[in-house]
Each structure stands twice: as structure tokens, then as C-alpha cells.
Amino acid sequence: MQRLREPKPAIVGTGAYVPAKILRNSDLERMVETSDHWIVERTGIRERRIAGEKECPSDMGAAAAMMALERADLQPYDLDLIIVATTTSDTLFPSTACQIQQKIGARKIPAFDLQAACSGFLYGLVMAHHLVAQETYRTILVIGAEKLSSIVNWTDRNTCVLFGDGAGAVIVRKSTEGGQMISHDLGSDGSQGQVLTVPAGGSRMPLTAENIGEGLQYIQMVGKKVFRLAVDAMESTARTCLKKAGLPTEEVSYVIPHQANLRIIELLAERLNLPLERFFTHLERYGNTSAACIPIALHEALTAGEIRPEEKVLLIAFGGGLTWASSLLEW
Ligand code: UT7
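# oxa(dethia)-CoA complex -> structure
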């Protein structure tokens, strides 16, 4: 029998949306000098979803949000705040969050975007947790929505095989049910920012014909360095988060890590001394969807019945910035 729980900030609904168009490794073989064998062996990715030309993060985020609301048995007018984590906002401004407020028909509640690259969703989740705990807001929608295909250089084999588009959403409110939040850890290191960046298009380097010619409006990544930093940061944030909760690593039933590379996840499992079977992956189907990875994965794991009552679930993210984040939940 499940024990009675105090009402605490919890994830009470999840939703996900991925575009219909599938780009397979075999398609990429015709675009750049690569092979299905290299991509699968070095990353674990087999295919990714690509948004339509006019399909934006706000469209994908709104679809995921409506699903999360329905699963929480709530309506858009129940929401008190919208936080959207994205690196690929529809427009520089207005924010994607404001566009989602309008698209889902929410009241005129606060809505803002949050930029912490691939860690953005967990940054938003932690904000939501505290705002609900302090009773500043009752019901918060947190979304991770990305159209990375719009900032990928489709002639650069080092990066174009890695990324995909999609959105995931959760509803956070006080509840005795759902995934109650136990502890979190967030961090950043700006000194390593140049290893993963989109140099042009911001105020430091506004778009010009010259920098567009050099492809500086696209993701630039020092892959090997990012790989090493990712493993170290994810291990360290996971350990800090568990320490805050006073929970031994082996009591984690399920891990949802950022979905950048299967080899990163394998190394993380080894370092945390947890069996790989406890780690959820969907990167073979979606690639790296940045801030959308974790909420999509959480939704898929829950709907597949992979997370059972009273199980402790650890979410771990890493991204440009650098940024990292982790969050421990109990279902
Ligand atoms: O969201 C967080 C951000 N992203 C990450 O966490 C990504 C972290 N990094 C990685 O996942 C890996 O470093 C990559 C998948 C990006 C690259 O894998 P790697 O094993 O580190 O390969 P590498 O960059 O050292 O390249 C090895 C070789 C190179 O050829 P040479 O110089 O040895 O002749 C590359 O040019 O593989 C070549 N290569 C490719 N070959 C076929 C690089 N990309 C490709 C490709 N197809 N797509």
C-alpha cells in the first residue's frame, strides 16, 4: 500500500510533441560525408525529428502544454505562470512564452523565456518548485521547446548529425500525487562558454552578409571537449543533488539524463555505479533536442509505465554556458 504523503510541489502532468518529419542517418549520408555506422557507433543516434518550415517552438510547446494540462486534468485558465526554456525562440522578442500564453488561451498571467541552453528545462523546474513552495504561484507550466534544425549548419558533419526538434511540458503544483520534488542542484561556468556557442545573431555580432557567409549563425562546438566537460559536470551535479537529499546513489530507481550522446550516458552510469538499464534514452529516435530532451523523456517514461509509485527519479542536464542541473523527484 502506498503511504500517505504531505502536499508538496510536484509534477502533476506531462506532455510532449515531436514533429512528424523523420530525418534518418541514411538521409544524412546523402547530405554530408558521414555514415549510419559512424553516427550510431559514436553517438547512438539513428534518426531525429525536423520541424516544418513554419512550425516554431511556440507551436510545439503549445501542443506539449495542452497535453500536460489534459493529463493534469486542468485547463489553460488554471495556470498562474508560464516558463519556457529555449535556445531557439521563435523571435528575439516577444518571448516564446508570451506566444504560448496566447496560443493556449491562458489568462494574462506572467510568461517568460529562460536561456540556459540544454539545462534550461531543469532551471525552469527549480524556479517553479520554489515559487509553488512559497505559494507565490499555485500552478506553473514549464516547457522545453526547441527548433535546433534552424541553427544547425547542414553542411557541417561534426554537428548536423546530432540535433533534432521537439517540445516537452510539465505542470507543477502542490500535490500529494505525481512526482514530488526532493532536491536540486544548478550551476554554471562562463569561462568555458566558447566550446559550445552560436557566435552571430546576438548584439555582440549582429548578422551581416560576411558572418553569414562564414556560417557563424550556426552552432559551433568543440565536440571532444564538450564531451569530457559533460561527463564531469553531470556526475558532479548528480552527486550534489543526491547529497542534498541524503540519498545514497544506489537508491535512485531511474535516471533521465540529457540526451546528447549514448557514450556520455554510458560513462555517467559507470561513474555513478548505476546499471545502464536504469537510464532512460530516446536519443536513438530524436537526437539531442536540448532543453526539450528531459521533459519529452519524462513524459515518455511515465506513459510507458516505466516509473512506478515511490520510485526516486533523478533528472540530469548539461549544456552550453556552460550550465548543468539536476533534480531528484519521488513518484
Ligand atoms: O547538448 C550538449 C552538447 N553536446 C554534446 O554533449 C556533444 C559532446 N560531444 C560528442 O558527443 C562527440 O564529441 C561527437 C559526437 C560530437 C564527436 O565524436 P568524437 O568521438 O569525439 O569524434 P571526433 O570529433 O574526435 O572526430 C573523430 C573523427 C574525425 O576525423 P579524423 O580527424 O579523425 O580524421 C572527424 O572529422 O570523426 C570525424 N567525424 C565524422 N565522421 C563521420 C566527425 N563527425 C563525423 C560524422 N561522420 N558525422
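# post-check
The domain at 182-330 is CATH 3.40.47.10 (Peroxisomal Thiolase; Chain A, domain 1).
The chain has a mean pLDDT of 97.
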